[in-house]
Amino acid sequence: MPALIAASAIRTCLGDGARTFAALLRGDCGVGPIRDVDGARLNVTAGYHIIDDDRHNVDQHRDDRRPDERAEALYRPSRWLADCIRDVLADAHLDAARQRLIVLVGTGLRELRIAERCADDTGQASIDAATERLHFDAAVREVCPGVAQVITISNACSAGGHALALAQDLIDLGEADAVIAAATDGMTESMLAMIGRFANGPTPRVRPFDRDRLGALLGEGAAALAIVPDRTPDVRPLARLLSSGMSCDATHETVPNADGIMRAIADAFTRAGRTPADVDLVVAHGTGTALNDPTEAALLQREFETRTTPPLITGIKGALGHTSGAAALMNVDVAIRCLHGSVVPPVVGLRERLDEGAALSFVMDAPVEATLRLAQINAFGFGGVNTITLVEAA
């Protein structure tokens, strides 16, 4: 059954949700020099960082901080996550003391950066603490001490989408009065090293669906959505969560599988009782990589091939980078703002569309105003873990 999205909050390199959406409409790009690692050694010299204040800025390399202070400053994904959860708790008027509240946290990298650094910086005690913080229970309970359960889902780049799907299941089954579907990720040296292997030279910026795209870059951030049952009294929902379709094809570690993605698409529409003919907007996965973009574009052409006019398509990774496990929920937040504002931001970095997307209606160069009712949100992860989310204007 459908559920209601009662609140949504995100943190990106461009700010909170309102500032991020305004920047997307302007076509801003949040890319900057890579921080906190030797980018030249990793073949990654740019990224989409959240610039913290001096109190938490790990790039200051201050020597006057105690080891525990230096370690705590590195728990940046936890802080962004807590900020987003705090916001949706307030906006949705949720109270864990009165309601059965569950929090699901999707992530690709968890707090791996602190685990990478603490052996050299702070010793065995901090290694043990870092291992415990790979699960986000402590971060969530700091802002929501009465929460019934905190579950961390480490499921690659579609983790946030999986959290949202499971949140709707928990609501449908009556296991919770409200569920917060959240996600967070920061950059890790190991992940940067991996994406550095996918390009001959450093990628200067992400250019989704562009003929001359050069590859992905990581972004940082968090997101949280408050999910409550349909027809909940006294709730003014942002949108209606119709369905999520999921698949796990597991055909290759990194190469997207078209059949697996199509199963997720079919699953989403079957659950929602809708068809691709109903879609007004697609917020695409759009990583700017050699294999993802042509696969996704070809699938979108296949999905909408019977339509005279395909739906508008946008993507946000050219502006925000690839935020790993948080990417799906950031896409949902942007989709909701598009539905409310009847406007779709352009795909930042897209100049000349790739051949596989020649017949698609990518939003380019400037925002497009349109009447929007139903949005499709794509999220694909390593190993073929895919989610397709359908969100309708409330």
Main sheet record: 12 strands, mixed
- Annotated CATH homologous superfamily: Thiolase/Chalcone synthase
Radius of gyration: 20 Å
Mean pLDDT: 90
End-to-end distance: 15 Å
Low-confidence blocks of residues: 54-63
And the CATH topology? Answer: Peroxisomal Thiolase, Chain A, domain 1
> How many domains, as an integer?
1
Give the helix/strand class.
alpha/beta
Shape: globular
- The CATH class label is Alpha Beta
CATH architecture: 3-Layer(aba) Sandwich
Helix content: 25-40%
Supply the number of helical segments.
13
Give the SSE string: EEHEHEHHEHHHEHEHEEHEHEHHEEEEE
Strand fraction band?
A: 15-25%
Quantity of strands, as a count: 16
Question: Characteristics of this structure?
Answer:
single chain; 394 residues; alpha/beta; Peroxisomal Thiolase, Chain A, domain 1; twelve-stranded mixed β-sheet; two-stranded antiparallel ribbon; 34% helix; 22% strand; globular
